[in-house]
Amino acid sequence: MKKKKRIFSTIGMMFLVLFLYAPIIYTVIFSFNDSKSLTKFAGFSTRWYTKMLNDRTMTNAIFYTVVIAVIATAVSTIVGTLTAIGLSKSNRILRAVVEQTNELPMMNPDIVTGIGLLMFFSALHLNKGFVTLLLAHIMFCIPYVILSVMPKLRSLDPNLAEAAMDLGATPMQALVKVIVPQVLPGIVSGALIAFTMSFDDFVISYFSTGNGVNNISIAVYTMRKRVNPSINALSTLVIVLITTALVLYNVASAISAKRRARREKMIDQA
Fold this sequence. Notes:
mainly alpha, MetI-like fold, single chain
């Protein structure tokens, strides 16, 4: 009976994995299709990658997407980390209010946030373009960084920074050399989430951009009415970038865990 249950659960898991990853595999395979057809594979070719790289609209979309994602990730990671550290030293009421407020952008539907930003930028008479798109991405990325760093800070000894300063460290040294290394996994997780959210966003970007500044999501949306296999090539590029980032993070985490375990073992032996 247990063996039958194990077989059924394995089959169910295989169908679930196939359901989740079949569209991604399909997209990658047909990005190398020699034909313009999106349903019939006519042979291996990289013509759509060449066409994508020669298309100024697509290359500009890739450029703006990467640049905005990198800048938004860097700024939101720094701001979010410092905010989380500041909140961990604040009184309980202020911390609770800010944490509840921090959850609003994540709970809010993207369409509401996008329209709100559109009205806000219009009220400030800002010309929509690169700057407004970057500000919008920084705004919705910061809450995810705070949410990732706060649990790590809660697990720390609250007297850790004071102990470091008692031993001669300045407040900045205590922050950089003591607190940040302890919460680094949360910072990296928050940065990866921020990068992914920025790279993938469409709705908020659509309402925050202008003057020909488009990201990949908006570029794909404008091609929805005509069959263009270059979309498969562009989508495959996004898949490769996100997968590479996740692999690098997992490898770095595994190496860091091994080094930490080796260090602790050496300390125990000493």
